[in-house]
Structures are given as structure tokens and as C-alpha cells.
Amino acid sequence: MKGRTAALLMALLLLLYVVLVGQRAVLFLSTGEPVAIALGVALLVLPLLGLFALVVELRFGLRTQQIVRQLADEGALPVDDLPRRTSGRYERQAADAAFPAYKAAVEAAPDDWRSWFRLGLAYDACGDRRRARQALRWAIKLRRETAG
Fold first, then answer.
1. Which residue of 73, 83, 120, 144 pairs with 136 in a disulfide if CB–CB is 3.0 to 4.6 A?
2. Which residues, 6 or more positions from 20, have their beta carbon under 8 angstroms from its beta carbon?
3. Reduced DSSP (H G I as helix, E B as strand, rest coil) percent helix, strand, coil of the chain, to 5
4. Which conformational region is residue 6 in: left (phi greater than 0), alpha (psi within -120 to 50 degrees), or beta?
5. What residues have CB less than 8 Å from 14, skipping those under 6 apart?
6. Phi/psi at 79 (5° precision)
7. Which residues of the chain have pLDDT under 50?
């Protein structure tokens, strides 16, 4: 719940920022000066890129949350019994030892979005965020394809 509240707060702050910067951009654009117009365009483009990135991340979070709920309802979530450090992160050796089973499940059923999602969680436990996100995105894509 804390993560959702923080994401909503950040989205609202970004929206406020976009509105305030947008007002400044319009003022720059209305001067007619070439340098001011360039600044106005930059002030419009950069916040919109940030807004786009936020929307992409929020959609990713919502989709992964839907998958977690579905897997929990099916009883198909992996058991979270790996030891953790005091920081809350998984013990790397334990995560590395559990990883091959998730990789083998994906190799056995490469079109199974559930296996890919669990592999993404395993990558995350091992500290490989880039591959974790790739596997989770692939799971989302496969799930969408099989649903409709």
C-alpha cells in the first residue's frame, strides 16, 4: 500500500510540475524571441517526456500487480522462503541457488507466462533488475496474447 501511495503522490507532483512549467513555456513562446522560443519548446518537451516515462512505469506496475493477484488466487506464486539480509534484500547465495529451477521451468515451457513471471521474480531476488524487468515484460506480453 505504501508503494501505491508513493506512486500516486509522485504522479500528482509531476502533474503539478508539468502545469507550472507549461505556464512558463507559454510565456517564453509568446515573446517571439528565438532564444526564448527555444527555451519554451524545451520546457514543454522535457516534462512531457517525464510524464510519458511515469505513465509507462505506472502501467508496468499495475500489470505486474494484476499478475501477482491472479497467481496468488491460483496458488501459483513461488514460496517466499529465501533468507533475507537486515536490509530486506535476499541473500544472494540462496537466491542464486534457487534460480536454476525457475530457469528450467521457462526452458521447459517457453510460452507459459506464469513461468516467465516467476523467472522475473527470481532474477529480482538475484539482484539482476534489468533481466527481471525483461522477464516480467515478456510475461505480461504472453499473458495478454493468451487472454485474447
1. 120
2. none
3. 80, 0, 20
4. alpha
5. 47, 50, 51, 54
6. -70, 130
7. none
